[in-house]
Write a structure and sequence with these properties.
This protein is of the alpha+beta class and 136 residues long. The chain has one domain: Nuclear Transport Factor 2, Chain: A (Roll), CATH 3.10.450. The protein contains three helices and four strands, in the order H-H-H-E-E-E-E. It has a four-stranded antiparallel β-sheet with strand order 1-2-3-4, with helices on one face. A hairpin with a 6-residue loop joins strand 1 and strand 2. The protein is globular, with a radius of gyration of 14 Å. InterPro entries: NTF2-like_dom_sf, SEC_C_motif, YchJ-like, YchJ-like_M. This is UPF0225 protein QT969_18050.
């Protein structure tokens, strides 16, 4: 069962949580509203934004069916505080891609960082998150 977002989404003119410096309505907002991200990086950024707002439905929809968990339980006490994209591969004309990133968060009063190298595939014109290749 998919639950609604636990945190309010930013207004369309507010800065997007993904850190690109664009307004939410011109950045990740259209993807969370149902549009398809055109590159692995944009999908990763929109998935980060979905974690920020607690949109588990979007996270599941953009997770490849072959690796998607049966359910996803996001902890509302975990606050995502920043994203750094370090390296990307794949794009408009590719069928596979990767994104290395650092996602900063606060949980239980402690700040931490998730450093991950993620794999994405494009099927039927749509990008999907497949798996973490490991933490560099």
């Amino acid at each position: 069962m998919t639950r609604r977002a636990r945190h309010p989404r930013p207004g369309s003119s507010a800065p997007c949580p993904c850190g690109r410096g664009l307004p939410f309505g011109e950045c990740c907002g259209p993807f969370l509203a149902g549009g398809d991200a055109p590159t692995p990086e944009q999908l990763m950024r929109s998935r980060y934004t979905a974690f920020v707002v607690g949109d588990d439905g979007y996270l599941r929809r953009t997770w490849h069916p072959g690796t998607r968990p049966a359910r996803l339980d996001l902890d509302p006490a975990q606050r995502w505080t920043g994203l750094e994209v370090l390296h990307t591969s794949g794009g408009f004309l590719h069928s596979e891609g990767t994104v290395e990133f650092r996602a900063h968060y606060c949980f239980g009063g402690h700040e931490d960082v998730l450093h991950e190298h993620s794999r994405f595939v494009r099927e039927g014109g749509r990008w999907y998150y497949v798996e973490a290749l490991g933490r560099p």
